[in-house]
Each structure stands twice: as C-alpha cells, then as structure tokens.
Amino acid sequence: MLSAVVFCTNSLMKPSLAFYCLEYHAVVKWTKGSREAAIIKKTYTILRSKETLAALLIILIGSALRLVLLGQYPAGLNQDEASSGYEAWALLHYGMDRNGVTAPVLFISWGSGQNVLYSYLSMPFIALFGLNAFSVRLLAGLAGCASLPIFYLLAKKLRGGLFGLLALFVLAVNPWHIMLSRWALESNLLPFFLLLGIWFLVLSRERPWFLSISVGMFGISLYAYGTAFIFLPSFLVMSFALLVKRKALRWRPFLLAAVLFLVIALPISICNILNILHLGEIKILGVTLPALTQIRQKSTMSGGFSAAIQNLWAFLRLLYTQSDGLPWNSVKGFGLFYGVPGLFVAALGFISLLYDLKKRKVSDSEFFMLFAFLSSLIAAFLIDININRINMAFLPIIYFQAVGLFFLTRIWGRRVTCVIVPAMALVCFLFSLHYFTDVQKTLSVSFFEGFGGAIRYAETLDKDTVWITTEVNAPYIYVLFYNKIPPGDFQRSVQYINPDSAFRQVAGFGKYRFGGPRPETNAVLILHRANTSGYAIEAIFGNYAVATLP
Known about the structure:
Layout: H1 2-13, H2 20-30, H3 35-67, H4 79-94, H5 117-129, H6 133-159, H7 161-172, H8 175-180, H9 190-203, H10 210-221, H11 228-245, H12 251-276, E1 282-284, E2 287-289, H13 297-300, H14 305-321, H15 339-358, H16 367-380, H17 394-412, H18 414-435, H19 438-446, H20 451-460, E3 465-468, H21 475-483, H22 487-493, E4 495-496, E5 506-509, E6 512-514, E7 523-528, E8 536-541, E9 544-549
Parallel strand pairs: 3-6, 3-7
Antiparallel strand pairs: 1-2, 4-5, 5-6, 7-9, 8-9
Helix pairs in contact: 1-2, 1-3, 2-3, 3-6, 3-7, 4-5, 4-6, 4-21, 5-6, 6-7, 6-9, 7-17, 9-10, 10-12, 11-16, 15-17, 16-17, 17-18, 20-21
C-alpha cells in the first residue's frame, strides 16, 4: 500500500503534472478493488479541487483587471468605439445604420467599411444599459474574460492540469490582452473567435460533430476583422492536412462543417468581391451587401515582393520592440508580453514545442497552435503591420510563453515556478498601477476625454448653430453617439467634404458644423481648451470647452 501511495504522490508532485490524469488511471487499474485505489482516488480528487480553486482565483483576478471601471478607463471614447456603438444603437432602434443600410454584412461607416460583428453582439448590452462607454465596451471586456477559461481548458486538454494553470496565469497577467479587453475596437474580437475555433477543433478529435462548431466560429470571425480572410485559408488547409494524415477526419461531420462554413462566409465574401469589382449594392434575403466608397484593403494591405519583405520585417521588429507607437496598444516598459524576457521565453517555448511534437511527447493537437502562429506569419507578409491588424498572432505567442515556462520547470524543478510566477504577478501589479494612473493621462488625449460632456452640454443651449472643432478624429460620430441623433435625420442633411474618399469628412448636418469658418452670432462653439482665448466660456469638460456667441 505504501509503495502505491508514494508512487502516486511522487508522480502527482513532479513538474510533469501534465500527465497525472493518465498516471492516476494506470495506478487505479493496477490496484483495482484495493484500499490503495481508494487512497489514490482521494489524493487525485484533492489535487483536482485545488487546481479548480486556483483556476477560479486566477480567472477572478484576470477578469477584474479587464472589467473594473471599464467605462472610465480609458477616459473618453475612440472614434471607432463611438462608431460601433452608434451603429448598434441605430440598428436596435431604427433597423438601419447611419448610412440607411438595413441588416448590413459590412458597415459603410467612414466610407471604406467597418466590421459588423462587434455592433451586432453589442446590441443586447446597449438595450440594457443605454448607449454609453460602458455598454459599448462591455462586449470587449466579457470576451477578454471568457478567453481566460477557454485558454485554460485548451491548455489543460493539450498538456494537463498544471500546464493549464500556468497558461491561464500567463494570459491573465498579459498586458496586451488586458488592454485589448478594455476598449471596443471591433477587430479586438478576432482573437477570441479564433481561440474558440481552435478549442472546438481540438475537441473535435474526440467528438467529430464539434467540427461544425469550430468552423462556425472561424466563419463568424470573418465578420470580426478582414484580416481573417488572410489568416484562415492557410490555417484551415494545414489543419485539414493534419486531420487527414492522422486519419482523424470523418467525412459526414466534415461535409456538414464545410457547408456550414460556406453558408456563414458567403455573404461577407460576396460583399468583398462586389466591392473589388465595383458592382454596387445588392440585397439577398433581407441582408444588405453594401457598396463602399473604397475597399479598406487599399489602406491596410500591400502587395509585391518588396512590400511583403518590408511587412515581415515590420512584424519581426514589432515582436522585438513590442510597440507600434499607439498608446492604446502597448505600454512602454511592459510591451505586449513583458519585453525581451517574455519574448525569450516564448521563443524557448516555440523550440520546445517543435521538439515535443517531433518526438511525439505531446498531443499532436498542439499542431493547431503552431499552425495559428505560422498562418499569422503568412498574413504578416500581406498586412501593413500594427498591433491591431496582426492581433491573431499574439495568443499563440502567449501559449508559447507558457510552454517555455513549463519547459523551465521540467529542467530546473518547481523552484523556477516559485520564482517566475510571483515575479510575473509583481510586474503585472506594476503594469496595472501604471496603466490606471500615468497611462490614462495619455489615453485621455487620444480618446478625447470631455468631448462627450461638451457635446451634451452644448445641446442644452438654445442656439441656431453648434460649431465643433476638428481637432478630434471624425467629430460628427461623437455628436451622433452622445446626442442619439436618429440615423434618418443624419442622412437627410449630411454634407460630405470628400464623399468618395475612404475616410469621408463631414462638413455638417442639421445645426452642427465641423470646422470651417466660425459663426459670428447666435452659436455654440466646442473648442479645445487651449484655443479659447477671446471667447465667453460657459463650461469646461476635460480637454474641451463650450463657448457661446450672442
């Protein structure tokens, strides 16, 4: 009996805890019906319960980092957040977007399009909480929180319970993922849906019908961000080849999954083709495939061998510097995954993963994470790189970080984990402290803090004209958002400066004027507070002031 308990305990307490489930079943089978089996089962149950409690604690802390004061930090709103939120509100209450399009598969938005998935999924939150920064960001926050248990379950499935906890912790404290979850850029949904797709793809190895859910998530991701069209072909081809090689593909579930993917992907795919060929808007079964002023790919993608090499170099440089210069994507000193040390651990994990796969020491389902990174690398050749556009690459890299840390625990023992995990927790604490204080001063400028308050206040003043500074990106969308202007009113009176441009500028609509000559009488002016000299200031909101002209 003692030897059996010692065997089980030693197996469970080694760094290779990833395999304790298999060990447990083997030992129980060996001691079937004996007292030793009961003791082993009890030990296993205790360890599993501690693992569950640890996972719940990490998820709770990670969720707090992503949800606490979501409406206040970042202060203000980015123009893309305001656009997604307003489109959701307009569809919810008027059945059309701001351009009068019903049930669009792609928003015309600024002219060259904006992805629709974020807005459609935000509608329930806007219905519950109204149109505000919190309701618009809630979907991003919840997707970030939901990523934590999914990432944990995926990692646990691939390498066992201890590795699952380690991977969960690495994602929970990751600065890129925390920042991604706290603002409502529609492309921020792409990593979440790709993660869901990979998770169900792994599950489909045992339950073939889950393949339909997997490809369903991949199909939906096409509506989250256009770069999915570059990522998915190579990923799906490599995954299909693996499943065929391993004889793990059952044709009936595969055919159902293929049909489902085509049904989901067809509307947005046809819409893109129509716009590339300039064939105009069409409606199919009540769904609108709108005509854009220009295709967005002109501003986000580049072709040719020289451009491809430059793009790849930009991606590699981005991984090294872990910054694209945009303050809402990374924080100086912390980067995407805690600087060069984090990159080194990820590289170590990548090499370790290749070795383990070659030696067949781990489940070959880990190939899917490798394929995700390789597909991101292929996409990097075609994309003008910034962090938002290549965001599909970072969850695989975070997974490699976890593999690298797990490798170190196997080489140097549990003491490495006892040092690295508290160190990462401390750095995450410092990052959070910096993010919620000093970084917000920068983000308040980029997110135009106070502009919404100035717009709402100006609406209460009885003046014929409201003149608004253009020292704000697309100021008209903020008027639509904060004053909840019906989309029909906007469409009837809007005047575009450059109506055929990829990013149309609005000269005015209704009583609102954006830039140009300032009125001389009976008007409200919304100015940057640095440009208020000579005006009678009624109120100041953050960086913006409201003045009146008699």
